[in-house]
Design brief:
This protein is α/β, with parallel strands linked by helices. Helices cover 51% and strands 20% of the residues. Helix 10 links the parallel strand 8 and strand 9. The N terminus is likely disordered. The chain binds ligand C2E and calcium ion (3 copies).
Length: 280
């Protein structure tokens, strides 16, 4: 039995080593991806329910691996967060997308076009984040109030006092804050009222079920009501059908995002979408 135990330990140890090795390889691969320009920013429009206008775009990271092809952010962002690589990667996304949106504002005479960028916990925690963002805005000439940083509930859940201070430092430079995937975390309503947040993004899991599941419909209604009362904009994520869009419209949701309106696209392809002004 002792020997068997030893073997079993050996087995686990090998397995652990190979996992550690794989992670190490992926980490160095991610580092190289940034250096070699394998990352690309895609953009997905955020559309006004009232008139179908594109109000802004969300920057979504893509990794084009020379052998594997496109790798989804859900496959590498968790490791990038753990290793801290998300900080240089996130700064790169910020610079590229701010510059791009500023260019579109001029090109399409849409000076108020907004940009939404996802911020990870590792970035949010950094003391120099407000200065970094202020620098990017200055360099790219994007108006601060047109940059909205998307934070998930978990990002702001740590030390509430500290989170509030950080959010105030960010809003002091003029940028806007949104809570991403709203409804899936544990952010208390008290904090929601206290924090300087301008928008709530209803998580896709609720939008998807809105026609089929009464509970999801109730939650979406409640989030929209909450947003109206707290003076926040509401964006429904993951809209995939006309039926969902009509329902959200009836519930007075003001902004929508999803495959039904437009998929995330590379910069070159989004120009056509930017010129269109009506809902499908
Ligand atoms: P997220 O911020 O919640 O972004 C929305 C995700 O839903 C995107 O996945 C988008 O492509 C997808 N989506 C949009 N509309 C629909 C729809 O109608 N149906 C369905 N099924 N999906 C839809 P994506 O691009 O794979 O990104 C996944 C997550 O990776 C993002 O979730 C975000 O948390 C993270 N991420 C992406 N880019 C960045 C980045 O630059 N920095 C950080 N920190 N995280 C990022
Ligand atoms: Ca997001
Ligand atoms: Ca989301
Ligand atoms: Ca998400």
């Amino acid at each position: 039995a002792a020997e068997q135990g030893g073997n079993r330990f050996q087995f686990y140890a090998d397995e652990m080593n190979s996992t550690a090795l794989q992670r190490l390889m992926l980490e160095s691969r991610l580092r190289r991806a940034l250096e070699q320009g394998e990352f690309v920013v895609y953009y997905q429009p955020i559309v006004s329910v009232a008139d179908g206008q594109i109000l802004g775009v969300e920057a979504l990271l893509r990794w084009f691996h020379p052998e594997i092809g496109m790798v989804s952010p859900s496959e590498f962002i968790p490791l990038a967060e753990e290793t801290g690589l998300i900080v240089p990667i996130g700064n790169w996304v910020l610079g590229v997308s701010c510059r791009q949106v500023r260019r579109w504002q001029e090109q399409f005479d849409r000076p108020n076009l907004r940009l939404s960028v996802n911020l990870s916990a590792r970035q949010f925690e950094l003391d120099d984040l407000p200065a970094t963002i202020a620098n990017v805005l200055r360099e790219t000439n994007l108006a601060p109030e047109l940059l909205e940083l998307e934070l998930t509930e978990s990002v702001v859940m740590g030390d509430a006092e500290e989170a509030e201070q950080r959010m105030e430092d960010l809003t002091a430079i003029g940028v806007r804050l949104a809570i991403d995937d709203f409804g899936t975390g544990y952010l208390s309503l008290g904090y929601l009222r206290r924090f300087p947040i301008q928008a709530l993004k209803i998580d896709r899991s609720f939008t998807t079920e809105i026609e089929r599941d009464h509970g999801s419909l109730t939650i979406v209604k409640a989030i929209i009501g909450l947003g109206e009362n707290l003076g926040m904009r509401i964006v429904a994520e993951g809209v995939e059908s006309q039926a969902q869009l009509s329902l959200l419209q009836a519930l007075r949701c003001t902004e929508v995002q999803g495959y039904y309106l437009c998929r995330p696209l590379p910069a070159e392809e989004i120009m056509n979408a930017l010129q269109a002004t009506s809902l499908p």
